[in-house]
Amino acid sequence: MAQEMRVMAGTEIIFEVTEDEVGGYSASALGYGIHTQGDSVDEIRRNVREAVDCYFEEGLPRPKLIRLHFVRDEVLAG
Fold this sequence. Notes:
The protein contains two helices and four strands, in the order H-E-E-E-H-E. By secondary structure, the protein is an alpha+beta fold. The protein has a single domain, classed as TTHA1013/TTHA0281-like.
C-alpha cells in the first residue's frame, strides 16, 4: 500500500482536511508525514502548498496535483 501511494506521488497527493474543535482546520497527507493547520479554508490551501513545497524540495518527484478531501462530522439529535 505504501509503495502504491509513492508511485501515485508523481501525479497526485491527497490531504484529508478536518475542522478543529476550537476552530480552524488541520490537514494530513495520506501516505506521507506532511501535516499543517490553518485558520480558514484559504489559509489551509496556502499552508498545504507550502508544506508540499518543503517536503519535496529534496529532489523527490513532485506531485502534479494536490487534492484536498474535506471531512466533516455532523451530529444529529435522536
